[in-house]
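Appendix C reproduces, verbatim, an entry submitted by the partner laboratory led by Prof. M.T., so that reviewers can inspect both the input and the predicted structure.
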Amino acid sequence: MTKTLLITGASTGIGEATARAAVANGWRVALAARSRDKLDQLASELGRDLARAITCDVQSPESVASAVNETVSQFGQVDAVFANAGLGATVAGTEMGEPDNWRDMILANCFGVALTAKYAIPELQKTKGQFLVTGSIAGRRNFGGSIYGATKWFVRGYIENLRDELNGTGVRVTEIAPGMVDTSFFDDPKPQALRPDDIARATMYALEQPASVTIGDIRVMPTPASE
């Protein structure tokens, strides 16, 4: 039976690349994000029988619950969920940072991940599926005054707690923790950074292990340029 992957933040960057990789590897995908036009275009490219566009704001409990329910309604089950939606900082650090941006980051990067887990768990327990989340190297190192980094420290701690909660249920829990990725987070190109496809390959590696194997976390870093 073809498996189904629900991806939040699926309209661009890592989410879009993972959706393309998943379909190429025989999965069906539920594409969740706020940008419906981009989702519809991606779903059309991937094939309407394999991809479903779902408008979703991960800061809203009702919206996340609806996205999970719509995935089940469309495809019959949820075998994996990739909590990828998130926001970056508009200004680095604390002193010059923007509080409105902090609020949005904390809601998307922390609250949104927890909501996605909450509403996905009942379906993942049925399929003995997998919950994945986009963490970051910023959640493993100190970056001066970084509120964004602090949200990824939350992700790292939360995913460990979630793994403990789900121990013995058959649900696997994985953190994908990349270094800098050249995505729409940045206004300028980052030629030395990772590409979304790099993270998609790592994500698919974790997803395609046998049920007896859990990849707890994958750290993906760009190789330093040679002298």
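The beta strands are 4-8, 28-33, 51-55, 80-83, 130-134, 172-178, 217-220. Additional entries are available on request from the coordinating office.
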